[in-house]
Amino acid sequence: MNTHHQLFAPQALLPSGWAQNVLLRWDAQGRYTSIETGVDAARCAGVAQASGPVLPGMPNLHSHAFQRGFAGLSEFRGQAQDSFWSWRNLMYRFAARLGPQHLEAIATWLYIEMLEAGYTSVCEFHYLHHQPDGQAYAPDGELSQALLRAAQTAGIGMTLLPVLYQNSGFGGQPPNEGQKRFIRSTDNMLRLLESLAPACSAQGAALGLAPHSLRAVAPQALQEAVQGLHALNAQAPVHIHIAEQMAEVNACVAWSGQRPVAWLLDHMPVDARWCLVHATHMDEAEYAAAAASQAVAGLCPLTEANLGDGIFDLPLWQASNGRWGIGSDSHIGVNAAEELMMLEYSQRLQSQQRNVAASAQQPHVGSHMLLAAVQGGAQASGRAVAGLAVGQQADLVVLDGQHLALAGLPAAEQLDAHVFASSRSSAVASVWVGGQCRVSGGSHPLHHSAQRGFVAARTELLQEP
Fold it and tell me: Which helix (H) or strand (E) holds 61?
């Protein structure tokens, strides 16, 4: 019996709920081969013992890595009424100066932050493709490769989603100056995907496509790109920004006569391969139809709050058995527990009720939300990371049972305390990805060196030209 491929957990959150005295086993490829409950602890001499409750690793289903470099730098009023659109102008100015070495340093630190915060994989919605003047790098996928290298260095699972971006607005409006680093033709994007496939496969990463939004990709190009993607890989994930802002919804109605989600469902083969990122502003018919499609709603509560996007109606979505997951998007916060807390609190403020995201089957809010987010995040990732179950990748998080917020509590209450009562201090003790321990004692081995690299890159980018 290989004790290096096992972990004994006094309490573990399985897909069916909390279980006691759980022995987790995985193979040399990092996949669970057995999960036993009610195990006699005496049988597990020599097996690593979890120091607190064991949780499934959280997939981060929406990330723009480069935006971590200017998190916190847009919190000032630059005009009479700031909005998402004024924030976007600041983001474009920052993106215009970024080089491959900056991106790799920022992403490496970000992915280490994610691991230390309980994320074990990331879906990278990657739209910074070209040199500052809009010309292609040689090789063309240099910035994509920088992200793959960063993920491999950190040891986080990766779903790479190169972004198709062609227009500045509905109806095929030409791109503006700030978008020239993003632009690719449909054929060029499909060639990029073909060229990236071997590198992704070599490190166990999934490869999909992210049509940026309906305003950035016209109908024919959207259809051709998705068809081309699925000719390469029939199961590849498709992620799209949709209905994030009311200005976008109104512009879509003016262009097509339909709201964005309704248009997408009527004109594209939306199914379980799709992730509808944000989907904040839907009417009741859109909520029901989008949930029925089995697509995942990609929710980014901290970024959505930071940008003033609006509030997703989680009870309405869950009433239709809708699937959802969480992402850190612009990385104004990098903390899986805080994303869950923000999502629940937004629902409480909207409904003037408490414990909105709980269910009859799982009355503990933290447990219900974490299990739902892991399932939805795994589906959106296109990877076998759906929790503590045989056949899934051995991605797990061990909480510190002696953390002040958790000590002495039962396991379900410990998770609730981790989400709602840890006072912005981390209760994450260790994190495993594919059966390998990446975070121990709350810290990644490359924490300090990656942090220095991040600070150096950000400092250089913020210097006046």
Answer: strand 58-63
